[in-house]
Amino acid sequence: MIDDSPFLKEIRNRYPRLGLLLSTIIDGVNGVANHAGFDPVGKAQPPDAVEALNVKAGTDHVHVTLTDNSEVRKHTNYFVEWSANDPAFQNPHVEYLGPVRGKMLNLPAKDDGGTRINYYFKAYPQGLGSDPQTKHTFFGTRFAPTPVTLSGSSQLTPLASTGSGTGKSDGSQSGSGFGKAIVRPPSGPKRSPAPPATL
């Protein structure tokens, strides 16, 4: 938040109306930032980690819910990541829950070859003006996530993840949420300039 105490008192003493105007502007900026989850002079602190991630499997879908009994601001957003056959989450798919702490996910039970898929899940919150919480909550534990299998017959090998937010477009930056950087530069090879025209 913008702290007006170092300079505003002096301005109010010399120019009362200007001081009042500046005080109103500062209060307005701080109020908007507080509601939206931003810090006008830097990054806001990320929300506390989620306490528990619960997963219930069906035939071709799972129901995930999050337990979060910490102080929650209205700009807190939640993310769940799932990984197919990879407990290290090297290329996870990101599900954006927004302010909701639960979602039904439709997932294939088997890959294209008919082999059952082991799914792994983790969750974390992020404020709009903060970095994502770096302490992720796993279904199971961080070093031994619990695999989840579905009992249905649907078959599909998931495509590779393309990530989320300003994270890398190859899906390799797990836990990015909205992103850690304000802008991600374009990715991919740069185009070579066209050869000059010859006469």
Description of the structure:
- The chain has 199 residues and is α+β, with helices and mostly antiparallel strands.
- The chain has two domains: 1-42, no CATH class; 45-177, Sandwich (Immunoglobulin-like).
- Helix content is 14%, strand content 22%.
- The protein contains two helices and seven strands, in the order ααβββββββ.
- The protein has a four-stranded antiparallel sheet with strand order 4-3-6-7, with no helix packed on it.
- α1 packs antiparallel against α2 (16-36).
Q: What is the topology?
A:
Elements: H1 8-14, H2 16-36, E1 52-57, E2 61-67, E3 76-84, E4 93-98, E5 102-106, E6 119-127, E7 137-138
Antiparallel strand pairs: 1-2, 2-5, 3-4, 3-6, 6-7
Helix pairs in contact: 1-2
Descriptive terms for the model:
single chain; 199 residues; alpha+beta; Immunoglobulin-like; 2 domains; four-stranded antiparallel beta sheet; three-stranded antiparallel beta sheet; 14% helix; 22% strand; flat
